[in-house]
Amino acid sequence: MIPKHNFAPRVLAWFDQHGRKHLPWQHNKTPYRVWISEIMLQQTQVTTVIPYYERFMTSFPDVFALASAPQDDVLAHWSGLGYYARARNMHKAAQQLVEHWQGEFPMTQEGVCELPGIGRSTAAAILSISRNEPLAILDGNVKRVLARFHAVPTWPGERKTEVAMWELAEAYAPNDRCGDYTQAMMDLGATLCTRSKPRCNECPLQADCDALATGSPTDFPKSKPKKAAKPIRSTQMLVLRQADQVLLEKRPASGIWGGLWSLPEVDLDDDVAQAAEQRLPVVVHDVTSLSPFRHTFSHYHLDIIPSELMVASSAEIQEGGKYQWFAISDALSLGLPAPVRTLLDSHQAMRQLI
């Protein structure tokens, strides 16, 4: 794939006239503020991120505030965004920045990439936007723009194709206005060169876009080879109630929902009351089945079968341990997996829990 003429000037001219310039992270563009936005925007739409970003920056206005915060507080601010490893890595990276870099980001892309949760493209975005470093990015939006512009015939996730696209991205990146160009490429993919219904007639690259010339621009980028259908797993979630409190379980630090507070789970074939009494110091006197529902992860479906268990008595549970009683209102302020929050906050559950 050979780079074409006058690419960056066209993109920058379009950005000057049509690009987004009023998003919260586009003001006071410090490495910290850009970093938080870049991590939040991974796998998540701008409209969803904005309120999360604003709340996050109010609570953690700088890297020192983030590094010193309890992980539970960080996860509570992330609750609902999904992909919670992003938040855990962000917290670890903040602590490393404070401990080893006096709260400043490294000056090189390689140095930034050593921080947890930051890869080549994200590091380049942080440094180019905040410090105007001449570095290329290759996020999902940029991959789509380049794959269409060159009608790349293979899936961009293939190693050989990805290497070729990095070469294009670096060839097109200008030496001047690097931060604006990085933002412009992301904006172009997010607002014009969208996955479906691209607005090709408004695109500054339409004159020599190879995908548009085929008459079927949405055929690019090529899709990832299909895998088998997602497997389905099932679990029983226990809503253990004692008066106006609910029992939550702290998830392990790694794995699905790592570090979040969740509802205890038992195997599908278990008798819920018996399983609860065997695992916990509780006596159950009433069980009510709640409506089952499905939560979908990137790699499998989880069918959740919830039950409400009224607890007649409970031995004291150690403060700060794996299990803890919370008032419902307090529980909803914690970092919770999305389906647990849905369950506790739904009309059917709330009618019984409040």
TrEMBL record:
Record's catalysed reaction(s): Hydrolyzes free adenine bases from 7,8-dihydro-8-oxoguanine:adenine mismatched double-stranded DNA, leaving an apurinic site
Superkingdom of the organism of origin: Bacteria
Keywords, ordered alphabetically: 4Fe-4S, DNA damage, DNA repair, Glycosidase, Hydrolase, Iron, Iron-sulfur, Metal-binding
Cofactor-binding details, from the entry: Binds 1 [4Fe-4S] cluster.
One Pfam match: HhH-GPD
GO MF assignments: 4 iron, 4 sulfur cluster binding; 8-oxo-7,8-dihydroguanine DNA N-glycosylase activity; adenine/guanine mispair binding; metal ion binding; oxidized purine DNA binding; purine-specific mismatch base pair DNA N-glycosylase activity
Keyword DNA damage carried by entry: yes
GO biological process: base-excision repair; mismatch repair
Cofactor(s) needed: [4Fe-4S] cluster
All residue ranges annotated as the HhH-GPD domain in the record: 40-191
EC number: 3.2.2.31
Entry's family note: Belongs to the Nth/MutY family.
Protein purpose: Adenine glycosylase active on G-A mispairs. MutY also corrects error-prone DNA synthesis past GO lesions which are due to the oxidatively damaged form of guanine: 7,8-dihydro-8-oxoguanine (8-oxo-dGTP).
Xref: NCBIfam families: mutY, PRK10880.1
Name this protein carries in UniProt: Adenine DNA glycosylase
Highest classification ranks of the organism: Bacteria, Pseudomonadati, Pseudomonadota, Gammaproteobacteria, Oceanospirillales
